[in-house]
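Minutes, structural biology subgroup

Action item carried over from last meeting: produce the C-alpha cell record for Transposase, IS4 family protein (Nostoc punctiforme). EB confirmed the sequence was re-checked against the source entry. Recorded below for completeness.
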Amino acid sequence: MARKRPARTGNPDLRQQKQVPMPPIEEIEQKIYSLLSPLNFKPLKLYETEEKKPFRDRILTLSVMMALVVSLVYRQIPGLREVQRVLCEEGLLWAGRIEVSAQAVSKRLRTLPIELFAQIFEQVMERMNVQPQNQAVPENWQPVCAKFTAIWIADGSTLEALRRKLKVLQEQEKTLAGKIMMVVEAFSHHPVTTWYTQNSKANDKTWCEQLLERLPIGGLLIFDLGFFKFPWFDAFTEADKFFLTRLREKTSYKVIRCLTNASFYRNEIISMGEYRSNPCQHQVRLVSVLWGSTWYYYLTNVLDPQMLSAHLVCELGSRRWRVEDAFLLTKRLLGLAYIWVGDNNGVQIQIFATWIFYAVLNQLCIDIAIALNQPLDRISTEMVFRALYHFSQAVLRGDAHEAVPYLVERQKLFGLVKARRKRHREIDAYTQQIWAKSS
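Output recorded by EB:
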C-alpha cells in the first residue's frame, strides 16, 4: 500500500531557501545599472559613536551597498555571509572584488540612512514610468485608462521574519517584522510606491493620507475593506480623485436613484450612513452583481456610467488581487519573507531592494508578453524568473545573447504562459452570460 505524503504545514512564505547563488546575467545587470545610475551615488560616512574605522568607512559606500542588496535579491544569495564570499571572490554588479566581513555589512545595513534608499527607489520608479505604459494595457481597457490619469491598486501585507537557524534563537523560530503598504499600477503591475511600519498590527488606514496625496488628480485607486471609512471617501470626491472598493457588510445606505435594475446586476446612486451621526457627505455609486448564488457589492465615486460602466466597475474590482500577486512574488519568490538583518533600518533597505528588482523582472515579463502577443496577466512571473538560470547557462555556452528572444523561443519548455484551465473558461463564459443577459 502506498504511503500517504504528509500535508505541508507552516507558512508557505517561509519554505526552505536554496543555498547556492544564481549566476550573474549581464543583460539583467545592465538593466539594473541603467535604472540605478550608480555613478551618481556619493560615498557616505559611517555614523558611529565608537572608535572610527577608516577602512570600513572607505569601502562600504552607498554605491557598494546598493550593489550588494540588489544582488542579494536578484541572485537569490542566501545571506550576508554568502554575499560576503561572493563580493570577495567575484564582485557584485558594478562593485569590484572587495574583502569585507559579514559583520561590517550587517552593521552598515543598520546604520545607512534609509532616506537615501527611499530616494533611489523613487528615482527608479520614475524612470520605469517614463516607458510607454499602454504596451501592457489590454486593448479593451485602453479607452478606460484614457479617462483616468492613473489606475492604481493599494494593499497592505504583514512581513514575517526568517526562521532562525541559530541554536540560541530556536525558541524565536518565527517573529513578525512589521507591515508594508504597496501601490502597483493596475495593468502594467509596476510598483508605484511603498511604505513600511514596524507595527505588524497596524491598520491599513495608517496610510490613508499618504495614498490620497500620492494619487494624481483624476486618478483612480482600488483598495479593499481595510480602508473603509466615510471621511476618506469624501476626501477623494473633494480632491477630484476617484476610488473603487467593496461595500462593507451592515453598512446602512439609502438608494437615491436606480440607474439599472437587471436580472444579474443593479447600478444605483446611494448615500451612506443613513443611521450614523457622521454620514458620508457625498453620494457614491453601488454596483451589485450576482455571481452564482452570491451577490457582490462594489462602491465607487465615479457616478457617471459613461465614464465607468457597471461591468467595468466589477472587472476593476476583481483586479485588486494583482497587488496580492505582487506580495506573493516578492515574499516567496524573491525572498522578502527572509529578513537579512533583525533591525528596522535593515528591513526597510531590503524592502526597497526587493521592489527595485521586482520592477526590473516585471518589465522583462511585459517585454515577453508583447513578443508573444499575450496579455501580461497570462505571463508567469515566477517561471520567467526561474528561466533566467537557463538563460545564464545558454550565454555561457554561447547559445544565447538576448533574454527575450531566448525565452520567447522556449516559452513552452519553461511554461512562461499560464495554462487556460477548465475553471478559467467557465468563469469567462459565466461572466459573458451575466452581462449579455443584463444588457
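Discussion: Strands lie at 151-160, 176-185, 191-197, 220-222, 242-246, 253-261, 265-272, 284-291, 294-300.
Next step: EB to file the record with the rest of the batch.
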